[in-house]
Amino acid sequence: MNVDLQKKPAGAGCGAGAGPRVAELEAKLEKAHGRLMGMRDQLAAAEKARKDARAALGDAKKRLAAKKRDDDAALSAPPVEHDGGKVPAPEDGAAGGAEGANGEKGHMSSPAADAFEAVVPGESGNNEGPVVEEGNKTSDEEEAVSNAVADDDGKKGSPEVELLRAKLMAKDMEGYELRAKLMVIDTEVDDLKRMVTAKGTELEKLKARLMLNNELVDKLTADLMVKDAEIAALEADNADLSKMAEEAAEAARATSARAREAEHALREGAAREARLAERLRASEHAREALEAEAQRSRVQREQWRKAAEEAAAVLGGRAAGASSSSMDKRRHGPVSAGGGESEGTADKDGDEEGPSGKRKAGGAMRALSDLWKKKAQK
Asked: What are the protein's UniProt keywords (predicted)?
């Protein structure tokens, strides 16, 4: 009896506990299969030994039957004289006995051969049924052989037959034990088959779940690749933005520097403007002072002009008096010295006689003296 075992390879990536469990069950099944094959070999050897024992028993029975027939024929048939001697006559009986022995031998050997043939096809068939059928056939054959021996002998045979019968019974018992063990092993093999089938179903479920997980992993991998591409794009944008930010910061620093320079320039301009404003105010003050001075100068010039006109008028009058006095001096001679004093006195008196003219002349002289003093101070 062979065990049809189809090993299902555990798929890569299946559950961590299912793979070792299935491998363990397969190892147990292989071990049970080896034990079963060993038991079958032992059973075949026992069957062969039993067949040999049955053949030996048949031979012994034939010998006993032939001997018995020969004895019976020798006792029952009278001696026949032939060529001056006595020869036993029952040749037909001996031949019949031989034929009967051969027939019995064929009858005895054919069930054992049938039983042995029933064992051999059972090894290539299914695991169930042939063992029971084989046991039934063997039991029937043993009963037939025992009945035949009992019928032929009618009583216990010779010690050789009893020994062969004892050996046959021992072989039968050994065969019974081997068949019982074989049935137990068949039961274990069936249990292991059921367990392997259950584990195979569980393995298929795990494979289906693994396929679903693989699909999910593939989907997540695709999503991860998309996210990686997005991250790469964002990193590129970030690099561009960082570069732009650096450029903007550089521009801001340059702008700040220019702003500081402009502020400094503005401060300097404000300072220059303040200085210019101060100078402008000073120049305004100076201009106002110059305008006031010019106004005073115009007033003074006007006063000088009037004073000059008055002085010219006064000097013109003096010149006329001087010319008349010179004519008098030339006319009077040495009296001119005393006359000069008197003239000077007269002129002084004449000047004193005109009080308004004296005041004007004095004012003009004072104005001229003040003007000369201011020019000298400047």
From this structure: Coiled coil
Dig out the tokens for 65 from the structure.
């039957």
Q: At what angle do helices 130-153 and 159-332 cross, to 10 degrees?
A: 170
Q: Find where tokens 């013109």 sit.
A: 316
Per residue, the 3-state secondary structure of the chain, as one string, reads: CCCCCCCCCCCCCCCCCHHHHHHHHHHHHHHHHHHHHHHHHHHHHHHHHHHHHHHHHHHHHHHHHHHHHHHHHHHHCCCEEECCEEECCCHHHHHHHHHHHHHHHHHHHHHHHHHHHHHHHHHHCCCCCHHHHHHHHHHHHHHHHHHHHHHHHCCCCCHHHHHHHHHHHHHHHHHHHHHHHHHHHHHHHHHHHHHHHHHHHHHHHHHHHHHHHHHHHHHHHHHHHHHHHHHHHHHHHHHHHHHHHHHHHHHHHHHHHHHHHHHHHHHHHHHHHHHHHHHHHHHHHHHHHHHHHHHHHHHHHHHHHHHHHHHHHHHHHHHHHHHHHHHHHHHHHHHHHHHHHHHHHHHHHHHHHCHHHHHHHHHHHHHHHHHHHHHHHC
Rounded Cα distance between 219 and 212, Å, is 10
User: From the CB of residue 89, how many other CB atoms can be counted at a distance below 10 Å?
Assistant: 15
| Cβ atoms of 237 and 46 closer than 8 Å | no
Each residue of 71-84: pLDDT tens digit?
A: 777 777 655 544 44
Map out the domains of the chain as residue ranges. Answer: 18-223
Q: Which amino acid is at 219?
A: K
How many Å apart are CA 168 and CA 148, to the nearest integer?
14
By the 10 Å C-beta count (0-12 exposed, 13-18 middle, 19+ buried), 131 is classed as buried
Which two three-digit tokens encode residue 350? 């004449």
Q: What is the pLDDT of residues 77-112, one digit of tens each?
A: 655 544 444 444 444 444 344 334 344 433 344 444
Tokens of 73: 């024929």
User: Residue 294 — left, alpha, or beta (φ > 0 → left; ψ -120 to 50 → alpha)?
Assistant: alpha
Q: Bridge partners of 87?
A: 80
User: Which tens digits make up the pLDDT trace of 295-330?
Assistant: 887 887 887 788 778 777 777 776 666 666 655 555
